[in-house]
């Protein structure tokens, strides 16, 4: 068994070299197992000024570590439950759109699922006027290539990229003229990006509901379902 030796300072008093002590303890992690009495005799100064033994400090550290692990596990469980809930809602949306007998039923079912399952108050579906010219279906509108909507969202129609975040009041009124309360944030998603079928817009009175850096998977999946339902009924 290796022995811990210390040098003698002036007057033969031990002159401990802290680095050597630390190195020794690291090299011999069983040192305190061989000297358990030190666990209670070594004191650590608490920030509040009180002293605690090393073993008490270890217990406190273990408690804190366990709490962190429990908190992490709880977050993982919460995320799993949220993913399961969202998956069930997406399945309901898919069934609703597949079973819809008409474009009007598609629009109504989409709006209902968004409101009841996802807390999204406003829905707008715009279809390129070359493929859809009717104006009598609530929630589905033709988009003229040189119309107000096309001009207002020129960047979107040029890039065909999802836009999320705060929305200007004039654009919100253009998309959601019958909104019960002002729409403060929105997500605008292309329908059939490669074929330019149109756009899906989701609006909320909560300014934080849609954020520029939020995940896009749910929006893309919803747009794919809507595009397939609309295309099948054009």
Automatic annotation (TrEMBL):
**Pfam families in alphabetical order:** DUF484
Return the InterPro entries for the record.
Answer: DUF484, GAF-like_dom_sf
Which top-rank group of organisms is this from?
A: Bacteria
Look up the coiled coil feature and give its residue ranges: 52-86
Q: List membrane-spanning regions.
A: none
Q: Which UniProt keywords apply?
A: Coiled coil
Protein name as annotated = DUF484 family protein
Q: Which organism is it from?
A: Fontimonas thermophila
Q: Taxonomically, what lineage is the organism?
A: Bacteria, Pseudomonadati, Pseudomonadota, Gammaproteobacteria, Nevskiales
